[in-house]
Amino acid sequence: MAKRDRRPAQRAGAAGACPCGQGLPYADCCGRLHRGEADAPTAEALMRSRYAAFAVGEPDYLLRSWHSRTRPPRLLLDLGQRWTGLEIVGADQGGLFDSTGTVEFRAHYREGGRQGTLTERSRFVREDGRWVYLDAE
Fold this sequence. Notes:
This is UPF0225 protein C1I95_05470. Helix content is 18%, strand content 34%. It has 137 residues and is an alpha+beta fold. Strand 2 (100-111) and strand 3 form a beta hairpin.
């Protein structure tokens, strides 16, 4: 998500489904990453967790998972935007033994009564051994 000013107004409950689309409860899925209990094992997992962070309103996690060279000093999220679904279009590298990876996705949202889609090809790298978002192509 290269946009730096987006967020919906709703948070996922601990027992609610994770917005990332993996089918697990938020608390057991991306919630663990957001709370700092685990690191994303792959670039795709990090991308999904960042989408979920936008969906539940976790700007601190978004900043922590952003590369130090491209990270903004602060992040303001849009309270009027509600993220409604994620589609992974494709991924290149970004596995357990890779140091770089890309993930192309479509993130669907609703804002002001209108539906929209953000399509992006995000680049990820390892920084200090952890996957981080670098930028979008």
